[in-house]
């Protein structure tokens, strides 16, 4: 297809993305990349607060009454009582939600980064200051206090009356803006066992992890409870246990090969495959497109005295026809990547790809899980 024709195609045609990992060999990975330890996790914190000191870009109080109520409540806590009939017209204040992640083993006095997001109609939080805001966990307990100057990562420019803006000015960050006030109890030091949780459930990978642990640390060290959880015997002494977990996390394990999968983004036309996906013989007709895949098995058998092995190979004849053109590919083995490439070369739309792959999956010719996002 010429460059001119490519440039004239709709944008959706040009966003076809193929990430193909060809080959079935898997490599060893560190155990810390495959699994986590139960009880070692982050906890989400949230709080409601006020950002003050804005340059007229705060909430319009006539449309956000909760901002006025928050100001009155804060004034009362500071010992200032406003007359009942007072009507506040504030432009330099914005109501915000403050969020943070409390890492595992965080101790009182530790600093955390917080994100400040406007919940009203403030135009910008740039230059504002977050006043002291308690951050609570899921149990409604206060675990940190946040306060500080908000930094907004936005940029603006005006040229000949037009304006350009990058990023959202209603979201900002306060680096080290919160201080931990309460530690989350951890159960990792209790008992004589710890539990590993695989990030992806897989019985084969769980079996390989158990074998690697028992080979490294001795028999009966680890046992699989199911396809995700693995129980591991660990030393009771805290210092020895930390050293043991460090060695455990750096243990190399070869994970089992994952199932073949094809992910399609129907909006952009992107296609992602986690490995080479094979296809059986099939024929699909869609509109003025015809897709025909013929797979021929060829058996190579040596003579009785050769001492070799019988080998089977596949030759795939992929024909994709669109009037008046014809695309023919002959490759060793029917590969989905070749089908998609050929369809894209004749200008098939993302919707065409989606319908054709769905039809192949429904007929059983596509040997992969098909996920549409």
From TrEMBL:
Gene Ontology CC, one term: outer membrane-bounded periplasmic space
The keyword Ribosomal protein belongs to this UniProt entry's keyword annotation = no
Q: Where does this protein reside within or beyond the cell?
A: Bacterial flagellum basal body
Q: Keyword annotations for this protein?
A: Bacterial flagellum, Cell projection, Cilium, Flagellum, Signal
Q: Which GO terms describe its molecular function?
A: structural molecule activity
Question: Is this entry keyworded Signal?
Answer: yes
Tell me, in one coarse class, where this protein mainly resides.
Answer: other
GO BP of this protein? bacterial-type flagellum-dependent cell motility
Q: How does it assemble?
A: The basal body constitutes a major portion of the flagellar organelle and consists of four rings (L,P,S, and M) mounted on a central rod.
Q: Which family does it belong to?
A: Belongs to the FlgI family.
Q: Which HAMAP family match?
A: FlgI
- Protein name in the entry: Flagellar P-ring protein
Naturally occurring in which organism (per UniProt): Sapientia aquatica
């Amino acid at each position: 297809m010429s460059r001119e024709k490519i440039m004239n195609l709709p944008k959706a045609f040009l966003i076809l993305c193929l990430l193909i990992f060809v080959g079935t060999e898997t490599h060893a990975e560190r155990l810390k990349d495959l699994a986590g330890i139960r009880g070692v996790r982050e906890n989400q914190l949230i709080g409601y607060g006020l950002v003050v000191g804005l340059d007229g870009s705060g909430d319009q109080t006539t449309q956000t009454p909760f901002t006025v109520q928050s100001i009155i409540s804060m004034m009362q806590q500071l010992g200032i009582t406003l007359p009942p009939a007072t009507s506040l017209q504030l432009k330099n204040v914005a109501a915000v939600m403050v969020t943070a992640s409390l890492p595992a083993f965080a101790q009182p006095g530790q600093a955390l980064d917080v994100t400040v997001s406007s919940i009203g109609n403030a135009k910008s939080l740039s230059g504002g200051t977050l006043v002291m805001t308690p951050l609570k966990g899921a149990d409604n307990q206060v675990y940190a206090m946040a306060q500080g100057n908000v930094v907004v990562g936005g940029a603006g420019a005006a040229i000949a009356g037009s304006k350009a803006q990058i990023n959202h000015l209603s979201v900002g960050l306060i680096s080290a803006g919160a201080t931990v006030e309460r530690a989350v109890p951890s159960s990792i030091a209790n008992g004589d066992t710890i539990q590993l949780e695989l990030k992806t459930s897989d019985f084969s990978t769980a079996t390989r992890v158990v074998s690697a642990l028992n080979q490294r640390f001795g028999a009966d060290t680890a046992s699989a409870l199911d396809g995700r959880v693995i129980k591991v015997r660990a030393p009771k002494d805290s210092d020895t246990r930390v050293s043991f977990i460090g060695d455990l996390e750096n243990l190399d394990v070869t994970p089992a090969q994952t199932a073949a999968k094809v992910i399609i983004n129907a909006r952009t036309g992107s296609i992602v495959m986690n490995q080479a996906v094979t296809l059986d013989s099939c024929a699909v007709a869609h509109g003025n497109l015809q897709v025909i895949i013929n797979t021929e098995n060829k058996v190579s058998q040596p003579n009785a005295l050769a001492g070799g092995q019988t080998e089977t190979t596949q030759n795939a004849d992929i024909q994709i026809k669109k009037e008046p053109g014809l695309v023919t590919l002959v490759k060793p083995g029917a590969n989905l990547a070749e089908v998609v490439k050929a369809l894209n070369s004749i200008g098939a739309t993302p919707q065409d790809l989606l319908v054709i792959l769905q039809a192949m999956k429904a007929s059983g010719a596509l040997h992969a899980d098909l996920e549409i996002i």
